[in-house]
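User: Hey, my collaborator sent me this sequence without any context and asked if I could get a structure. I don't really work with proteins. Can you help?
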Amino acid sequence: MIITITELVLTLIIPLLILKYRHAKPISLIGCIGAAYLAGIIYSLAASAFFPARDTSIAEIIAYAGISVAIPLLLFSNNIKNVLRLSKSTLLSFFLLIISVMGATFLIYVLIARNIDGGGTLGGMAVALYTGGTPNLNAVACMFQLDNELILTANLSDIMFGGIFYVFLTFAAKPLLSRFLKSSEKAKITSEPGAENENDALPFSFGNKGVIRNLLIAFMIVAVSFGIGMLIWLAKGKIDGTMTNYVVPALMIGATVGGILLSLNKKVNSVKENDIIGQYFATVFSYSIASIINLGKIGAVSLKIFAFYACITTISFIIHAVLCKVFSVDADTMIITLTAGIYGPAFIPSVSKAVKAEHLLSAGLIVGSLGYAVGTFLGMAYTYFLNFIG
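Assistant: No problem. I've predicted the 3D structure and written it out in structure-token form, which is a compact way to encode the shape of the chain:
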């Protein structure tokens, strides 16, 4: 009991501390999600040494709950209606990115991941990740109940190669693409005052009634989704051992759909703390998963999974560049939409400044929001497709 309570406290406190000191080194270097995984791994090693027979069921429940609450909160802060304001070039580039990611994932899946356990799900997770973001990847992983060790390995692979690719994107991509693609044109949407801070993490402010309201709404979405999953399971005759097969997908789909619909509500959407609180629950998920993994199971497949995700990122970039050339998309638009898909909205301000494409800042943030909205569904559909073709 003491161990369980200790783990519960650590699971809630450590992510809070990571977010509080997110601008300090080394957290700023590896990101909040990376720091959460690292902290979870350290705890897992220590706990395994002193309590080899510990019960990890509580941490696993917290992980599922964390990502379920994180998804609607992250979506609340993104107004999907703004997609209608995007230029045709920006929407086209993002659509070409989706095609590129799917094509690259199929190719690399056939060559590398077909014989990896859970390879189809890992492929679907890649589509969700590179069109949306880390929450989408983890939502697909939970939906198809991938082993915790594989979830962690996929996330670490993305963090490791993602860091390398980010350096290329900010320093070398534009000089390279400018020789290949047409010159940039000013986008229809230009930066708005304060837009560059839209995705900056803000301090918690529970004195704000809107924060409490949105938290309650997020929990209600999760509760309703859970109830729907339970009803489906009961309607199927309470098949032994398969309750989670219905409840977890219902949670992930319900959280995404609920988050998208509620983001259209001005009162819900206008609460600035939506994003940081959503990040907190996503960090809780990351720490929880890392704290219960069996590190001995990772070594055998980690190199293949790292190669899988690294190749998908690289091949997606190449295909996207070729398609942008064919459809006359300029270099700046390609880079910003690629960043929105592969990294999410949080990276748009820094990349737009690095490549001197500040005129695409708002467009990039909106496309990133669109990616969060569709990433889980694309990843889910692609997982079914890859599992079907075997």
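In plain terms: The CA atoms of residues 20 and 132 lie 25 Å apart. You can pass these tokens on to your collaborator as they are.
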